[in-house]
Amino acid sequence: MPAARHCRLLIPGDWRTLTGGYRYDRRLVESLRARGASVEWLRLDGAWPRPDEASLAEARRAIAALPDGECVVADGLAFGALGEVVAPHARRLRWLALVHHPLHLETGLDAAAAQALRERESAALRHARWVVAVSGQTARDVAELGVPPDRITVVEPGNDAVAAPGFTAAGAGAPGRAGPEGGGVQLLCVATLTPRKAHAVLLDALSGLLALDWTLHCVGSAARDPALAAALHARTAGGPLAQ
């Protein structure tokens, strides 16, 4: 797919939300603009990837209003549910799907829900001229949805210094304060506090390394699962994992 000097980034919901996926999208825009491309946001609100009819109707209006030939980089959280909406514009617009995580591989789904998401995302991806996956494993998962491997490019996330809400845990050998000035190994986990991100597994693993000098900084929204977030905060507020 040839490089575009102008494109729209189709985003489900608020792109300022503190998740690794949205951060990836924002950095993508920054990189494109740094290379001289003009990038505009196209925000679609709704309960993606399971939008109601009102959200789908709004998506139809927004996509129909895009000019012919427009390059649309669509975040997979929405794109995977937009197959029927995208189909009438598959030739008119140039679609690039950005897949962070295939929808049907989300944890907590029953077999029927997972299969429905798999079929919908597979149908949507047929309309994409190109697919960007965030890891080699994700690329393999996308290929299993029927996308030819030669139409998939892997662009792995980079790393940045981050300051945002979250929680901090420390080993017994740590000096008791966060940040590089504290010395020791600084570990960073950027992920929404939800079961799929498995923060508890990470804490269990680090519990066996309490004698070492390390500090873990967890950055991510606590609003998606308040009960889990409270439990993680409680676990690191006192006891051996307290900062």
Provide an overview of this structure:
The protein has 243 residues and is an alpha/beta fold. The chain folds into two domains: 6-154, 3-Layer(aba) Sandwich (Rossmann fold), CATH 3.40.50.2000; 166-241, no CATH class. It contains eight helices and nine strands. It has helices spanning 20-34, 53-64, 76-79, 83-86, 111-125, 136-144, 199-206, 226-237; strands at 6-12, 38-44, 71-75, 94-99, 130-133, 152-154, 166-170, 185-190, 214-219. Strands 2-1-3-4-5-6 form a six-stranded parallel β-sheet, with helices on both faces. Strands 7-9-8 form a three-stranded mixed β-sheet. β4 (94-99), α5 (111-125) and β5 form a beta-alpha-beta unit. It is elongated, with a radius of gyration of 20 Å.
Average pLDDT confidence is 87
| C-alpha Rg (nearest Å) | 20 Å
CATH topology name of the largest domain, in short, is Rossmann fold
The amount of beta strand, in percent, is: 15-25%
**Main sheet overview:** 6 strands, parallel
**What is the rounded distance between the termini?**
49 Å
CATH evolutionary superfamily of the largest domain: Glycogen Phosphorylase B
Question: Helix coverage percent of residues?
Answer: 25-40%
Series of H and E elements = EHEHEHHEHEHEEEHEH
**CATH architecture type of the largest domain:** 3-Layer(aba) Sandwich
